[in-house]
Specification:
This protein is mainly alpha-helical. Helix content is 77%, strand content 0%. It is globular and about 55 Å long.
Length: 233
C-alpha cells in the first residue's frame, strides 16, 4: 500500500505539471466563458457542449499520450521487474485522469451555473451520462494508447479522431443544421451519444436509453480491444 501511495503521489505531481492537463482544463472553460456571455438565463445547450468537450479532451488527448509516452520511454518495462507492477501504474493513471475529468467538469458547472446563469442538470441523469460518457471516451483513448507506437503518434491519432467526432457529435455545429445522414450517424459516436444524454439531463428529463447503450457498448468493446492489444514495451 505504501508503494502504491508513493506511486500515486508521484504521478499526481507529474500530471499537475503536464501542459496537456492545463489545456484540458482551460480550453473548455475558455470556450464556455467566451460564448457564455451571450447566453440567456437558463440555457441548456452551451454547458452540455463544454462538458462533452472536456471529457473528450482528457480521453482522446491526455490519457493516450501519457500511456504511450510511458511505454515509449521504457517506464512500463522497467516497472515490470519492481514491486510496482505496470498494471498498478495503469490503474493509478486511469484514476488520476478520472479525477482530472471530474475537476474539469466541476469548474464548468461552477462557472456555467454560478456565474453565467446556465440551467442546472438533473442530478441522476447527469451522473449516468457522465459515467457512461467518460467510460466510452476513456476506452477510445486506451485503444489509441494500445496501438500507437509512441506518445507523439498517440497525440496525432487523438487529434485526427477528435475533430471528426466533435463535428458529428454536434459540438461544432448545431445538430439541426447538419445533413440528416450526418446527424443520424453522429448519434452513434461516443461524443454524439454523450452530448445527447447531457442534453436530456439538462432539459430536466432522463437520458434516453439508446445513447446510454451506445456509450456502454463503446466502453466494453473498445476496452476489451485495448486490453488485448496493449503492449508493455
Amino acid at each position: 500500500m505504501k508503494t502504491l501511495a508513493k506511486l500515486t503521489a508521484v504521478e499526481t505531481k507529474l500530471l499537475v505539471r503536464e501542459p496537456g492537463a492545463v489545456f484540458a482544463l482551460a480550453i473548455p472553460l475558455f470556450i464556455l466563458v467566451a460564448f457564455g456571455s451571450g447566453i440567456t438565463e437558463g440555457d441548456t445547450v452551451l454547458l452540455p457542449m463544454a462538458v462533452t468537450l472536456a471529457i473528450g479532451m482528457v480521453g482522446l488527448y491526455l490519457l493516450p499520450t501519457t500511456l504511450a509516452s510511458y511505454r515509449e520511454r521504457g517506464i512500463l518495462r522497467r516497472l515490470s521487474v519492481t514491486p510496482v507492477r505496470p498494471g498498478n501504474l495503469l490503474a493509478v493513471q486511469l484514476l488520476l485522469q478520472l479525477a482530472l475529468t471530474v475537476f474539469a467538469v466541476s469548474l464548468l458547472l461552477v462557472a456555467g451555473i454560478g456565474f453565467l446563469g446556465a440551467h442546472a442538470p438533473g442530478s441522476a441523469g447527469f451522473l449516468a451520462a457522465f459515467l457512461a460518457g467518460t467510460a466510452a471516451m476513456f476506452s477510445v483513448g486506451l485503444l489509441i494508447a494500445a496501438l500507437a507506437p509512441n506518445g507523439r503518434s498517440a497525440n496525432g491519432f487523438g487529434v485526427l479522431l477528435f475533430f471528426p467526432l466533435a463535428y458529428l457529435g454536434g459540438l461544432m455545429q448545431p445538430v439541426e443544421y447538419m445533413p440528416d445522414i450526418l446527424a443520424l450517424a453522429g448519434g452513434y459516436t461516443p461524443m454524439g451519444a454523450l452530448r445527447q444524454s447531457l442534453d436530456d439531463a439538462w432539459s430536466g428529463g432522463v437520458p434516453a436509453p439508446l445513447p446510454l447503450v451506445t456509450m456502454a457498448a463503446y466502453a466494453v468493446v473498445l476496452g476489451l480491444a485495448a486490453a488485448r492489444s496493449f503492449r508493455w514495451e
